[in-house]
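Record 1 of the preview.
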Amino acid sequence: MNAKALEVPIWEKSNLTVEEAAVYSGIGINKIREISNGDSCPFVLWVGSKRLIKRKMFDNYIEKQFSI
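->
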């Protein structure tokens, strides 16, 4: 099996990179980093120094926002 066959579509992934979250949401990379910097951010998952975005929780967060 090649790498292409193992790729999971963004909308089916449970965690996204910041770059994937930006493409998925239409929100810029810098803005996603800014709003996910806080210790109490509900949708960020740190794997060592790598920041992942919990897709479903990110969706819920965005739905509740009027402005970012």
